[in-house]
Amino acid sequence: MFQNNLQQWLELARQEANKGQLPSYIPLLSQADPQAIAIAIQQVNGDQISAGDINLTFPLMSVIKPFLLLYLLENFGEKAVFQLVDRQPTSEPFNAISESKPKNPMINSGAIALSSLLTSCETLQNWLNQRSGANLHLDLEMLASVRSVANRRNLAISEQLKSLGIILNSSQALAVYEEICCLRGNVQDLAKIGTLLVDTKRSPHIAIVLEIMTQCGMYAASAEFAKDIGLPSKSSVSGALLSIIADDQAIACYSPALDAIGNSVAGLFIICNIKPQKG
Q1: Non-local CB neighbours of 61 within 8 Å, separated by 6+ positions
Q2: What's this model's pTM, rounded to 2 decimal places?
Q3: I need a surface site. Which of 16, 17, 42, 91 has the fewest CB within 10 A?
Q4: How many whole angstroms separate alpha carbon 260 and alpha carbon 180?
């Protein structure tokens, strides 16, 4: 029954996608199929259901940020992480150039600062794949496309972080950040890594990540989304969207047409329809 509803929601969501647009500032993202759509729901017990273009792969982009945070909390601890970045919501654009310590790990300045703690993209890639059973790989073509942009806002962000004394090596931090954003997988891979954030009893760090996702994960729409939907979520300019139902399931969506804020139009439609009913 639920599988049938899932198919119906996907068809309705595909129509909603016509209201969105592909991002234009990264060349390869602008070439995605605007009608592509997929969903995977991974239960904490291992069961999964999926529908749509489930074999289609895409770069994770910003949806990697909660997992960067989780990895660093698990391996470096809270003190090392929050020495570099705060955990506060912000109304600033996700790519704002910070004048001080980055407000949270879900904006670019915060994620670039945290990337300075990684020695390579492979560190996070291998950790996620081994822990979840996903098959993420680095998309070198997408990485080249990201680095081909003439006005690289993130380059200015990394240089500002260095000038503020938050990071020491701006080029290394930016390189790692760009690489982890270009990790590629399908919607089932995203759901699998999402389960690392589902079991809140496994680690106290999971609650921290979920709280920050709830407050900061949906760009400028974060506060409204938290009020209306209430699920810890993270969106991405590639059209990926991950929502977590704590101690139950991870919901991964992909549809590359975005609204004016930068969130997947179809992904939002799906999450609004399948979220747990209140009361």
Answers
A1: 181, 182, 236, 237, 238, 240
A2: 0.95
A3: 91
A4: 25
Contacting residues for 213 by C-beta, under 8 A, at least 6 apart: 66, 106, 197, 232, 233, 234, 244
Cα separation, 227 vs 265, in Å, equals: 18
Res 276: pLDDT:
52
Radius of gyration of the chain (CA): 17
Domains of the chain: 2-274 (3.40.710.10)
> In this structure, what are the phi and psi dihedrals at residue 71, rounded to the nearest 5 degrees?
-60, -45
- pLDDT band at 174, cuts 50/70/90? very high
Q: Measured between alpha carbons, how far apart are the two ends of the chain, in Å?
A: 22
The C-alpha atoms of residue 34 and residue 14 are separated, in whole angstroms, by 9
* Strand, helix or coil for residue 1: coil
